[in-house]
Amino acid sequence: MRTSRRFGYFFKLCALAFVGFTAIAMTQAQAQTSWPDKAVTFIVPFPPGGPVDTTARMTTQAMAKNWSTPAVIDNKAGAGGIVGAQTAAKAPPDGHHFFFAAIHHAVLPSLNTKLPYDIQKDFVPVGMGARYPIVLVVHPSLPVKSVQELIAYAKANPNKLSYSSAGTGGGTHLAGELFASLTGVKMQHIPYKGSSPAMQDLVGGQVQLMFADSTSAIPFIKSGRVRALAVGNPEPSVFFPDLPTIASAGVKDYEAYSWSGVVAPKGTPPEAVKQANAQLNKVLKDPQVIEMMNKAGQEPVAMSPEEFAAFLDNEIKKWSKTIQTAGIKPE
Hints:
The longest helix has 32 residues, at 2-33. The chain is 45% helix and 18% strand. The chain contains eleven helices and ten strands. It is of the alpha/beta class. Helix 4 (104-111) packs across helix 11 and helix 6 (171-183) packs across helix 11 (305-326). Helix 6 links the parallel strand 5 and strand 6. It folds into two domains: 40-132 and 259-326, 3-Layer(aba) Sandwich (D-Maltodextrin-Binding Protein, domain 2), CATH 3.40.190; 133-231, D-Maltodextrin-Binding Protein, domain 2.
């Protein structure tokens, strides 16, 4: 009798333990699936209406459709993206604060040794967002119709070709410097305050070529006022399906385009990062989101946190080498 009572007591304990463990597991599962449980803030380091801001709004609005809480865009513009990054680095690492980093944040470490944050040490990567293609365009009067013809012409006429950019140290400038360093050509860089005036002077013939952002270039390519030779993407762009990549046209290892992606303050819970990445990648594959982004001149790109970390590290190293080779100094 005593033995049976002992067994009964033992089984009761096991049952209670099972119930307890089950409750804990359910609580943990609910905690994991209930993210977010309050408003999620996405800090954007540029003014409303720009490419990065547009990417942020399109992706976060789509993500928030599955939430019971809102997605809030907080524009912290200033100092070429520094103000926003500094603000984001100090944001609470509670899984409800994120930052839309851009190519600027891979370039700035090589141009400013006194940044008030470290894009790699003060943040954890979440995932890529969008790519903004860069297309190599020339004035129609230039007697070249391919990348190889351009290289041959530039080598036969050192420092006689000039290319415009949206500003020193920006993506359209560095794309040109990378091209020069990989091909050995010598060209004159003419910086402007924005893509629009840089493109206008190319159309007017004041400069001969430009590594232009696709949004600025498409209208002039369609009208025949500039001639497109190739794109800087690693693979053909959806916007220029008939154009080769600069790398496939003979410039090995060439890859240049602007981009934006999501990071979170250091210390953000891994589960929040995991869920944010999963939901971001889900909307980046949504046909409606893809259509909206394409209309805005953007190519959605999904990555895991690990892939985005490797991408960011490679971008920092690539542009650091390009900046050192070109001897670029901050304005």
